[in-house]
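Shipment paperwork, digital attachment
Item: protein structure file
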Amino acid sequence: MIRVLNTNVEGNVNIMYALTSIKGVGRRYANIVCKKADIDMTKRAGEFSAEELERIVEIIQNPLQYKIPQWFLNRQKDHTTGKYSQLVANGVDNSLREDIERLKKIRVHRGVRHSCDLRVRGQHTKTTGRTGKTVGVTKKK
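Attachment content:
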């Protein structure tokens, strides 16, 4: 086990797949990060030196400086800053929470649905998702 970006990463797994345990890093992003860092893709995560891991973390946190295209990033045109970035680890949770709070605050339909704990993406709710409510037919005696 190695610690990368506040996440425990398995040391006996291939480096590309080990990086996917970090929230916000998928297989394709891990692949491009490994290629930009010029590291051996066949090595296991536990075999890397601290310097190589620092280089990987640097590329994950600052992808635009290493010529990773904007369309590859998971946060495009942020609402507050207007910048493109790759969110990882705790940043993913924080930005999701902030986005939902922003939607609730401006009282758009999605925000209202979130605040009422209803389905947001247009699903049917007449018969599904009845958690906590007992609905049914009672038998007459």
